[in-house]
């Protein structure tokens, strides 16, 4: 492809993108293909010669699009959103065009310095105190892994990376059953081991871990010869929106000199609205906090904001400087590759700059407040309908419900009916061992009419 062709096709694809988003409501939300359908349409080996872009785009429509689940669909109520606001997409086009590798300050000073400033913009927006510094990770999973590695090294007096874990005292890390499964994976990858992740019972209407049980578990482990290393708490857990009592969690962490990490991957974006911050009261005492602007805030995936009260512990855990990465004569510069597990880094800060300047915080607050209000209204409508029962009340814009009087198999069958119908997309979770239907509002362009439409679809398919 020549650059003049690139320009022509860039314009065509931009128009395709605008048309796609404008007409998304006409498409089924979830892919309607069967396993193997897409692969069967792809040639078994790469071509020896070039194919024209006209043919490639025709095949894109024929092969790819039928197998896409439309995460930007306004009637996507499953999982959590992975939003892509228009200015964020434009920024990503520029990032892809520049194609910079931003691992060090000197490999792209603008990327490093903008990242520093954008994380401070976000810090202020969600009300964290000034001592927090930030870094953009690819996902909350990476931030949690970085936190667990820091817990491990700190508890082992910074000897784990060098000596390994063989023969070392067994470490313990604490969380509730409501945390994301990325915590389990971080425990595996870090070498701490699944058997050393201690699940604390939950209590209260926000389904947070019981502080009394947490403290008792730590004391019991110390008495048994284990070494507690850290606590992972959540604000807005994936299943039901569970929120730990961060004031108590942080207090206990400090009492036992443990590293505390807060996973607010989805709900953290809501903290741009001051009235929602009661859900994470006490967060200012944590060592590490993560939330994903690529979820509710509208930044295109991937973009995870990781805040640290003292980044030196993370840098001490992850920094490695072979000769080819040294920045001679520039002491004191931030090299964000030392703040994350991957060495390579994309210019993720640009989409935050475009997004926040294009909308401003108040317009983003209005969207989030609408989503919360609409979730509360929908839950209230379901309460009034005898076919449904609320299982967990809305936490921000997430709640769970069931078809009244039916067993788990029937709940799953309902979810499958809804998703096979294609007009909306929902998922299920488990609450106290039983299947519940999970409904979450957060797509960037969703309207109140879409929520009312979802209610009608669910009533029709409930039987």
Structural write-up:
Helices cover 42% and strands 14% of the residues. The chain has 463 residues and is α/β, with parallel strands linked by helices. It has 3 domains: 66 residues, dopa decarboxylase, N-terminal domain; 246 residues, Type I PLP-dependent aspartate aminotransferase-like (Major domain) (Aspartate Aminotransferase, domain 2, 3-Layer(aba) Sandwich), CATH 3.40.640.10; 101 residues, Aspartate Aminotransferase, domain 1. A 7-stranded mixed β-sheet has the order 1-9-8-7-6-2-3, with helices on both faces. It has a 4-stranded antiparallel β-sheet with strand order 10-11-13-12. A hairpin with a 4-residue loop joins strand 4 and strand 5. The N and C termini lie far apart (54 Å).
Amount of helix: 40-55%
Count of structural domains? 3
The end-to-end distance, rounded to whole angstroms, is 54 Å
The string of secondary-structure elements, in order, is: HHHHHEHHEHEEEHEHEEHEHHEEHEEH
Looking at CATH, the homologous superfamily of the largest domain is Type I PLP-dependent aspartate aminotransferase-like (Major domain)
Computed structural class: alpha/beta
Estimate what percentage of residues fall within beta strands: 5-15%
The poorly predicted ranges are none
Mean pLDDT: 91
Per DSSP E runs of 2 or more residues, the count of β-strands stands at: 13
């Amino acid at each position: 492809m020549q650059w003049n062709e690139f320009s022509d096709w860039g314009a065509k694809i931009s128009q395709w993108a605008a048309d796609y988003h404008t007409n998304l409501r006409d498409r089924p939300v979830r892919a309607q293909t069967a396993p193997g359908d897409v692969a069967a349409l792809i040639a078994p080996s790469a071509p020896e010669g070039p194919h024209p872009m006209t043919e490639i785009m025709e095949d894109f429509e024929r092969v790819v699009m039928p197998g896409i689940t439309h995460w930007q669909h306004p009637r996507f109520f499953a999982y959590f959103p992975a939003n892509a606001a228009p200015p964020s997409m434009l920024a990503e086009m520029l990032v892809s065009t520049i194609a910079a590798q931003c691992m060090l300050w000197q490999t792209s000073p603008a990327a490093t310095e903008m990242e520093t400033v954008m994380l401070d913009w976000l810090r202020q927006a969600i009300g964290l105190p000034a001592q927090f510094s930030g870094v953009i990770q690819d996902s909350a999973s990476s931030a949690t892994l970085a936190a667990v590695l820091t817990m491990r090294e700190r508890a082992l007096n910074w000897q784990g990376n060098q000596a390994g874990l063989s023969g070392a005292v067994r470490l313990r890390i604490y969380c509730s059953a409501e945390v994301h499964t990325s915590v389990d994976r971080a425990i595996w990858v870090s070498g701490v081991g699944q058997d050393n992740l201690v699940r604390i019972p939950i209590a209260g209407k926000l389904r947070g871990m019981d502080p009394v049980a947490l403290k008792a578990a730590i004391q019991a482990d110390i008495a048994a010869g284990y070494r507690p290393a850290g606590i992972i708490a959540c604000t807005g857990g994936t299943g039901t929106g569970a929120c730990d009592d961060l004031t108590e969690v942080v207090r206990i962490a400090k009492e036992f000199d443990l590293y505390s990490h807060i996973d607010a991957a989805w709900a953290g974006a809501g903290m741009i609205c001051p009235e929602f911050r009661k859900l994470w009261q006490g967060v200012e005492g944590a060592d590490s906090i993560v939330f994903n602007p690529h979820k509710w805030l509208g930044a295109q995936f991937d973009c995870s904001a990781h805040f640290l009260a003292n980044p030196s512990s993370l840098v001490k855990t992850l920094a490695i400087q072979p000769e080819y990465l040294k920045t001679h004569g520039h002491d004191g510069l931030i090299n964000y590759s030392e703040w994350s597990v991957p060495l390579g880094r994309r210019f993720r800060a640009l989409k935050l700059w475009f997004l926040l300047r294009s909308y401003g915080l108040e317009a983003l607050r209005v969207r989030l407040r609408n989503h919360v209000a609409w979730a509360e209204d929908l839950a209230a409508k379901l309460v009034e309908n005898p076919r449904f029962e609320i299982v967990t009340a809305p936490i921000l814009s997430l709640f769970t419900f069931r078809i009244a009087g039916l067993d788990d198999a029937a709940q799953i069958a309902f979810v499958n009916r809804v998703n096979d119908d294609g007009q909306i997309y929902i998922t299920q979770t488990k609450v106290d061992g039983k299947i519940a239907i999970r409904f979450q509002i957060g797509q960037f362009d969703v309207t109140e009419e879409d929520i009312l439409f979802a209610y009608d679809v669910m009533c029709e398919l409930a039987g």
